[in-house]
Design goal:
- The protein is α/β, with parallel strands linked by helices.
- The chain has a single domain, classed as Rossmann fold.
- It is globular, with a radius of gyration of 16 Å.
Amino acid sequence: MHTLVFATQKGGCGKSTLAAGIALAAQHAGHLVRLIDTDPQATLSNWQSRRLAHDVVVDSVHEAGEIEPELRKLRREGTDLAIIDTSAGMNAATRTAILCADLCLLPTRPSIADLESTVTTLRVVRAARRPFAFILNQASIRGERGNLAASALSREAEHELAEIVALPFIASRNDHQDALAAGLTAVEYAPDGKAADEIRRLWEWIEARLQSRLEQSAPTDALNDDTDVPWDSCL
């Protein structure tokens, strides 16, 4: 089982919307997906309550000590992709989720305030030695701001651009918010639209990255055996 964690210091970057969109894109691609909502604002849980279909399960888990047992349970049930949505800022639950991640996804808008706010989250991810990638979200449809932001992120992270900035950039499109209000995602709300196409291509990028990092995902290896791992000691 792979575990994705969406984490960011700053709120309002569309983290929960992206988590839901990637979950549905992966599910449509044939994966058995489960969402875990650790955010007290419960954006994903509220989104699930608006869905008419009961094809997506969102588990609310708010205590750090409950995350690793929840992931073990999902693995036993046959889940092959767990997606954890965290709250803005940094707390014990988010730190534990990051420790359990095969890939940490750091959404950010291409503005100076948002770019600066990624530093705190990036430090925690690096300390945990977890693979990561930035997602440029709510980008302008036109202009060079997205490319400039991507270059700035790669310099800050001291990695090659192609390795740590997910593609494509996700443009600011009404389909995302309209879909969220209806308990849907862009890939369901307007499946032939540009927003849906970007989310599907983003999932393909993420999936390829997960496959390439499979042998390096130590926390997943730990979750795949029956021994108890002292995650709290890493906080």
